[in-house]
Amino acid sequence: MKILDQPWKDWVRLNIQRGCSRQELYEILLREGFDRDAAALEATRRDILIPNLQPVESPLVELYTVEHFLSGEECEALIALMEGRLRPSTITAADEPDQYFRRSKTCDLSYVDNPVIREVDARICAALRIDPAYAEPTQAQHYDVGDEFKPHTDYFEAVELERFSTPTWGQRTWTFMIYLNEPQAGGATAFPNVGLVVRPRTGLAVLWNSLKPDGQPNPHSIHHGTPVTAGWKAIITKWFRAPR
């Protein structure tokens, strides 16, 4: 199979901007001899409205980083709002704390009536061009030394999907995560199948699609919130759902 190099990627993005059919671009890439999955991923990339957006060049998962998505002042305000509102983090499958797999504390930010939270929520939805009706409530997480979230995916497994779907919400799609501070050491987010390790920086956003172009769960989106080894780490996370 041919490698989908940068000139071809630029060609795809230029033609998407011109309004060309994504299906037609995908079929052209196949005729040119490119890998089916890589061609599908490139032809279906989402149009994201964020300055400083940097795509991670991988044929396995649609993944981006954004420097300075939030200002230092906004991050400080969100950290202050977490104080006194933290509870032990849970895992989806169990709905209860798990000190082995996920060690952290969570704040349900979207249930706090504050203009900073409303602005951040709206900015995330607008950047992804996703109707807020398909957005889960924004959460914040606080990690102390030794805390981590072991390698996991954000989409629902079949049994979980049946449990957590609603008449309007289906599978989880996008994750939008923002670092609110920089721990003294550790706390990186690793994507082992992509070979990417993202170091926490205040205001840096990391966003990825947990599904393949055909809408099926993408196991390559597995990621690891590595242990904090000095200081502490705070992030916010927002998940989105596919319409049913």
- The SSE string, one letter per element, is HHHEEHEEEEHEEHEEEEEEEE
Describe the global form: globular
Radius of gyration: 18 Å
Which percent range fits the helix content? 25-40%
Strands in their spatial order, largest beta sheet: 1-2-13-9-16-7-6-3
Structural class: alpha+beta
Q: What is the count of distinct domains?
A: 2
Q: Name the beta content range.
A: 25-35%
Mean pLDDT value? 91
Any guess at the CATH architecture of the largest domain?
Answer: Sandwich
List keywords for this structure.
eight-stranded antiparallel sheet, 16 strands, single chain, alpha+beta, 244 residues, 6 helices, Jelly Rolls, four-stranded antiparallel sheet
In short:
The chain has 244 residues and is α+β, with helices and mostly antiparallel strands.
Please characterize this protein's 3D structure.
The protein is of the alpha+beta class. The chain has 2 domains: 1-45; 66-243, Jelly Rolls, CATH 2.60.120. It contains 6 helices and 16 strands. Strands 1-2-13-9-16-7-6-3 form an 8-stranded antiparallel sheet, covered by helices on one side. Strands 8-14-11-12 form a 4-stranded antiparallel sheet, with no helix packed on it. Strands 4-5 form a two-stranded antiparallel sheet. A hairpin with a 7-residue loop joins strand 1 and strand 2 (63-66). Helix 2 runs antiparallel to helix 3.
